[in-house]
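Hi support team,

I'm filing this because I wasn't sure whether my run with magnesium ion finished correctly. The job status page said complete, but I'd like someone to confirm that the output block is well-formed before I use it downstream. Pasting the exact inputs I used:
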Amino acid sequence: MQCHAKTIRLDLIHPFRISREVSTYKENVLLSITDGEKTGLGEAAPSAYYGENATAVHDALARVPSLLGKNPFDLEDTGRRLQTHLPECASARAAVDIALHDLAAQRLGIPLYQFLGLNPDRTPTTSFTIAIDKPDKIRQKVHEAAEYPALKVKLGSEHDLEIMRTIREESDAKIRVDANAGWSVEQAIYMVQALAEFDVEFVEQPLPPDDLDGLRQVRAAASMPIMVDESVLMAADVPRLADCVDGVNLKLMKCGGLREALRLIHTARAHGLMVMIGCMIETSVAITAAAHLTPLVDYADLDGHLLIANDPYTGVTVQNGRLILPEAPGLGIKNIV
Ligand code: MG
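And here is everything the job wrote out:
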């Protein structure tokens, strides 16, 4: 099997501000793996927060050909080799894992959800993200998101309650709040109580990732579920969180691909936790890969491709906020150009 990787610059429709950073573009790495007949597509969306960038992804992917076996169906063994040899670059592992799943399902001529044994009628709705911004911009974004039954609102700024009031003036949609680790324990307890009047569905990552005692305190003070994102990367992170929170937000780019995502989902279920699947800023390649897993989760936040102006691909679509999986073999990705 042969690999080819290239960097792609993704331009954001709006500058994307969360509690710790603002960005106007993103550099991801697209990967293709071919067996001479079929070509599987994968994508790495490296995260500076987790110490990754496009150069690190290329360095990691340069080592991949020697780690691939001859058989694209050998997904578990290949995944173990990638985890052993590329532990520092989860997004590069995700790119390889996604491309191999695409290739394997294409070889069988079936869509990826069928390869995974999942029912495409069980996909949830996806939320649409409203990043931190000025009130007039937030109003504009809420109107742009009118099709979506749930808004994912980024907080952790100086103006959190003003943002919430602005959104509630414009929309009756469900609101999910994501503080991206931007609050202290005292701020988080104040905020979960203040947010009660805004009919918030859940609050995600109120505190820094390792503050488990703090998470227990916030959860005890909150009337809505508390989820974590930055606190959980892989399945092995789940057990210690089980008595601190109500659910976990997994991402292919944090855990290293679909195989580990499946382990994470089942581990979370075994601990009685709710499961959400989220994303980074990604093209339709990685978003569609994650979408094929959504029949297994409670919540989806898969709008990363909708925030960019130059997605070169189409795959999963959204109808009335619900994810519609492509029927074509593999991921079902099509190149737009
Ligand atoms: Mg999050």
